[in-house]
Amino acid sequence: MAELGLADHLAHGALDTGELARRCGAHAPSLRRVLRELAGMDVVRPAGADAYDLTEKGTALRSDVPDSVRSSIRMLGEEGFWYAIGMLPTTVRDGSSAFVKRYGHLYDHLAKNPRSGRLFDEYMTARAIPFTEGLAKRYDFPATATMVDVAGGKGHILATVLHANPHMRGILFDLEHVVDGARQTLAAEGLAGRSEVVSGDFFAEVPAGGDVYLLASVLHNWDDEDALKILRNVRRAMDPGGRVLVLEVALPDDEEPHLGKDLDMRMLAIFNGGTERSRDEYADLLGQADLTLTEVVELGAGASLIEARPR
Questions:
Q1: Given Cys at both, which of 210, 249, 261, 273 links 148, Cβ 3.0 to 4.6 Å?
Q2: Selected residue with higher pLDDT from 123 and 199
Q3: Do 237 and 213 contact (CB within 8 A), yes or no?
Q4: CB of 197 within 8 A of CB of 182?
Q5: Any residues with CB less than 8 A from the CB of 22 and at least 6 apart, and which?
Q6: Is 220 an active-site residue?
Q7: Distance of CA 21 to CAs 16, 18, 35, 48, Å?
């Protein structure tokens, strides 16, 4: 349903199966069988002879609604991700990712496969919306600070923070093949005059002199050794009175259910060493980088903002 865009096609009212198949480029008899199953799942409902309408639950699969889950579901069905989860037993037996053995590192795979890369960008943009809004609303940024968004991607988080804090400036730092998209985003948002885009490798160094360094969904991609390299480079680059903000899904330290534990299975499947961590594990990691955890702000949707300052 997500891949064919059925919810988008049904957004303005019921369609018969033949017309819906024509619009989404599907084989009508096969689609009819899928719609029957979707009706049983209460994401569509019958609307006359051989016609279907969207339910309230199914609306979440539209592309144009707040909290849309379409991009996340499509990402789960992407060839490499699907393979990774299917091969999870092999990964657990071997202790190394079957995905990495077949496809290489995730970001190399995405760079080699533009369709998958675009799909991942859509997923990350949609996933970041609740975190980003929570970050802008719930964290008290220094009024005139310069924030360095390390591995800032297309710049959506930085743009949201700068709009919410009109006296701040920003530096977006990411790999060379990523930063052109960030320049376009920041220019389109009218922020080119308050921002700078820098390319580089965070395992080598990060831009110096920032007041706030944001690592959003970065550290969970790496094992402790590599995560420490990143944090130590940030610690060396930051001003003495600066702070580090780690935006991640922080796991509880007990056995209570948590979205992050499901995400951790996906990290296990896709990365060698990538892992979701608990607050205590982040506190220990930050301590090894000469940083002290000073505050944790809950952002919703399972995400936490962990603030740390130099010891």
A1: 210
A2: 199
A3: yes
A4: yes
A5: none
A6: yes
A7: 9, 5, 11, 16
Could you tell me the pLDDT band of residue 302, with boundaries at 50, 70 and 90?
confident
Q: At a CB cut-off of 8 Å and minimum separation 6, what does 261 contact?
A: 251, 276
* Catalytic-labelled residue, pool 27, 105, 177, 220: 220
Place of tokens 């069905």: 77
Relative to beta strand 243-248, strand 291-300 is unpaired
Say what the pTM is: 0.86
Using an 8 Å Cβ cutoff, are 232 and 167 in contact? no
2-16 pLDDT, tens per residue?
Answer: 999 999 999 999 999
Pairing of strands 303-310, 243-248: antiparallel
Residue 235 burial by Cβ neighbours in a 10 Å radius (0-12, 13-18, 19+): buried
DSSP state for residue 53 in the 8-state scheme: E
Between CA 287 and CA 187 the distance in angstroms is 37
Residue 253 predicted with pLDDT over 90:
no
Q: For residue range 146-174, list pLDDT tens digits in order.
A: 999 999 988 999 999 999 999 999 999 99
Token representation of residue 265: 């299975």
Question: Cα angle at 282 between 241 and 299, to 5 degrees?
Answer: 80
